[in-house]
Amino acid sequence: MGDDQRELSRLWRIMRTTKQMCADRGYELTEEECNISLADFRAQYADESGAPNRAKMAFTARPSDEMIKRYTPLPRPGQTVDPEPGIGTIHVEFVNDPSIGIKHLKAFAQLLHEKNFMTGIFVTAAAPTTSAMKIVPSVLPTVIEVFREEDLLVNISRHELVPKHTLLSAEDKKRLLERYRLKETQLPRIRMDDPMAKYLGLRRGQVVKIIRKSETAGRYASYRWVI
């Protein structure tokens, strides 16, 4: 297998994981898109020489109705209009520049703003500089997430030892806290940089339900507050 074919196979795995990740969050992607064959990937994303073209791999996806519901906050007391959901169309780009600096993430943030994308995923072969990463929290309300290609070669959520994580809606979170008479700060915590929290794009203050297997109980659920 030549270098181009090895790189094509590697990017095929990365693309599949990225689309599966977006679908697991609740974005509207078909089974066929998430599990594209290597042959179809080669036909769609390779140039005439057979080398992969990352620019062609960019894609967008809209949130499903269920995802919009999970990201819609509860109305405040006295509020007369429905709250706006904190989610919208996502845009994903794959970049192969040998170094990723401030200008790359600024340009990406500008694109998201111009196209009215609420979330952007920036998949890069090289590690961004520390100064570049400082831009990420400054572009609110737009959300930028940065992933290294090497971290997407394998879908961690499919591993048998990784329990199922499900984001609670604001309403479900409220019911959970009322049921156990808790404040959210009393829940066990999960960091935003936890691999599964990052996979699902969890945000600070959200609560995720984790379902684990048990030899005695079959399955049991626990909850984590995102910090």
UniProtKB/TrEMBL annotation:
SUPFAM superfamilies hit by this protein: Eukaryotic RPB5 N-terminal domain (SSF53036), RPB5-like RNA polymerase subunit (SSF55287)
Q: What Gene Ontology molecular-function terms does this entry list?
A: DNA binding; DNA-directed RNA polymerase activity
Record's Gene Ontology CC terms? RNA polymerase I complex; RNA polymerase II, core complex; RNA polymerase III complex
In Gene Ontology terms, what is a biological process of this protein? Answer: tRNA transcription by RNA polymerase III
Q: Which domain of life is it from?
A: Eukaryota
Keyword Nucleus set for record = yes
- Keyword set includes Phosphoprotein: no
Record protein name field:
DNA-directed RNA polymerases I, II, and III subunit RPABC1
Which source organism does the UniProt entry give?
A: Hortaea werneckii EXF-2000
